[in-house]
């Protein structure tokens, strides 16, 4: 996309209005009177629009878990030609069965540069995942690298997409309106919602958690109280905005792991008004209210949970999204960085910027745009340099503000795609960060 194109997208992105609040029953109309009052499906919807319900939960799920939106659109979604299979590129879906699950600690450098002309969808590269899209369980880890705005439209029937930009801003044109997601923000596109990604900068890179399971919600706060962690009002949904475009538009649908394409004779981003709670949103991770220990010991990272996808077992997430945001460390007589551990949950970590406090062991390690995978029960923790430094550090209050890292923590091991298992950017020597940890035992 030309510089002018990006400038136009940036101007649009910087002027957006929002609706605030997580999980709210929002409503919005781009034209006055477009939203029916007092009923969802009048005999004739206002302004000659078509009424359509988009369900994100079974009709009969309990009220707290029930998700649906009503869309008032120029043409009904049903007015489309058949979809035919198209190339999946480097995108894969669950079940992941092409490699043997690997118990080793693994770490990758950033993705290589994309070929010129790569849009967000073509730039998606699947690292691995678990569960089964057709069973609506599990998750996948994708990364993306793109240099071109999409002109086509994408929708994922398999799950919701949690997008974590690492470099380059994104303008998300969705059925519900426009959202801006810069590095340090997250964007969530619910299952089935159609959208197009335009680049706000020359290139864009980031991570995507595709969640096949129950939609992400805010974690319960228990004794923390009524406030803290990610506060609901900081989640921003779009206001209605529509494209009244007649002419060929390619629409790509991901269905049970494969991409399917159809050329519509209009843009499906033609929703003039909507109401409901199955809506896309963005959230600025710097708004996260970080809570931690103000006495001793390093708390478990669950205290940094931004969003959680619950399973049928209380407290056991299909996947948690966790952020390691700037914070103070004040623990007394405490080894302050992440401890050595083996976890039944599997941890994929990414770095948006700067450094991560468990991996201070120098250049070429855990770098922005890279990622690490510590699968179920694999032993990991601070690297040698971090351990040595933190074991003898002067325990004055210390501000950690030189990085923004995150974790997708999932209940099942992550099985790699062949592309991830054999990637040139897979670091062959990652194990070495734990070599040379000396024996200090003095019985
Ligand atoms: O492995 C990691 O770096 C993630 C992590 C962070 C932390 O603060 C405690 C446990 C944990 O798994
Ligand atoms: Fe860990």
Automatic annotation (TrEMBL):
EC number: 1.13.11.5
Positions contributing to homogentisate binding: 356, 380
Protease keyword on record: no
A GO MF term: iron ion binding
Annotated stretches, region: Disordered: 21-40, 81-108
Keywords, ordered alphabetically: Dioxygenase, Iron, Metal-binding, Oxidoreductase, Phenylalanine catabolism, Tyrosine catabolism
Residue ranges of domain Homogentisate 1,2-dioxygenase N-terminal in the record: 18-285
Residues reported in the UniProt entry to bind Fe cation: 341, 347, 380
GO cellular component, one term: cytoplasm
InterPro entries: HgmA_C, HgmA_N, Homogentis_dOase, Homogentis_dOase_bac, RmlC-like_jellyroll, RmlC_Cupin_sf
Biological processes per GO annotation: L-phenylalanine catabolic process; L-tyrosine catabolic process
Cofactor section: Fe cation
Pathway membership: Amino-acid degradation; L-phenylalanine degradation; acetoacetate and fumarate from L-phenylalanine: step 4/6
Family: Belongs to the homogentisate dioxygenase family.
Role according to the record: Involved in the catabolism of homogentisate (2,5-dihydroxyphenylacetate or 2,5-OH-PhAc), a central intermediate in the degradation of phenylalanine and tyrosine. Catalyzes the oxidative ring cleavage of the aromatic ring of homogentisate to yield maleylacetoacetate.
Protein's name in the database: Homogentisate 1,2-dioxygenase
Species of the source: Streptomyces mashuensis
Gene name as annotated: hmgA
């Amino acid at each position: 996309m030309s510089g002018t194109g990006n400038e136009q997208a940036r101007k649009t992105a910087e002027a957006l209005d929002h609706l605030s609040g997580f999980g709210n029953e929002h409503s919005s109309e781009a034209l006055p009177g477009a939203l029916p009052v007092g009923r969802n499906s009048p005999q004739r919807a206002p302004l000659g629009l078509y009424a359509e319900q988009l369900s994100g939960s079974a009709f009969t799920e309990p009220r707290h878990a029930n998700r649906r939106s009503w869309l008032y659109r120029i043409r009904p979604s049903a007015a489309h030609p058949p979809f035919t299979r198209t190339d999946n590129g480097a995108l894969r879906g669950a079940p992941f069965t092409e490699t043997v699950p690997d118990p080793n600690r693994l770490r990758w450098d950033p993705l290589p540069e994309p070929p010129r002309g790569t849009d967000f969808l073509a730039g998606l590269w699947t690292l691995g995942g678990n569960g089964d899209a057709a069973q609506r369980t599990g998750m996948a880890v994708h990364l993306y690298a793109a240099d071109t705005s999409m002109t086509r439209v994408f929708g994922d029937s398999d799950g919701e997409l949690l997008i974590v930009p690492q470099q380059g801003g994104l303008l998300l044109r969705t059925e519900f309106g426009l959202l801006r997601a810069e590095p340090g923000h997250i964007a969530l596109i619910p299952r089935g919602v159609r959208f197009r990604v335009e680049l706000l900068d020359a290139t864009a890179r980031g991570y995507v958690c595709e969640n096949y399971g129950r939609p992400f919600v805010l974690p319960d706060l228990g004794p923390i109280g009524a406030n803290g962690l990610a506060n609901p009002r900081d989640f921003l949904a779009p206001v209605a905005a529509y494209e009244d475009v007649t002419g060929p538009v390619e629409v790509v649908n991901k269905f049970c792991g494969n991409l399917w394409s159809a050329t519509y004779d209009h843009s499906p981003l033609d929703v003039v008004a909507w109401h409901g709670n199955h809506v896309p949103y963005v959230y600025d991770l710097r708004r996260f209210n970080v809570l931690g220990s103000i006495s001793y010991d390093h708390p478990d990272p669950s205290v940094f949970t931004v969003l959680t996808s619950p399973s049928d077992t209380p407290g056991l997430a299909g996947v948690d999204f966790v952020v390691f945001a700037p914070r103070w460390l004040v623990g007394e007589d405490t080894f302050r960085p992440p401890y050595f551990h083996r976890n039944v949950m599997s941890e994929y970590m990414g770095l948006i910027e700067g450094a991560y406090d468990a991996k201070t062991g120098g250049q070429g390690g855990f770098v922005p745009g890279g990622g690490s995978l510590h699968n179920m029960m694999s032993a990991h923790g601070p690297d040698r340099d971090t351990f040595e430094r933190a074991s003898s550090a002067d325990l004055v209050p210390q501000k950690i503000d030189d990085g923004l890292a995150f974790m997708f923590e999932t209940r099942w091991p992550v099985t790699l795609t062949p592309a991830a298992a054999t990637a040139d950017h897979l670091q062959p020597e990652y194990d070495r960060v734990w070599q040379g940890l000396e024996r200090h035992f003095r019985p």
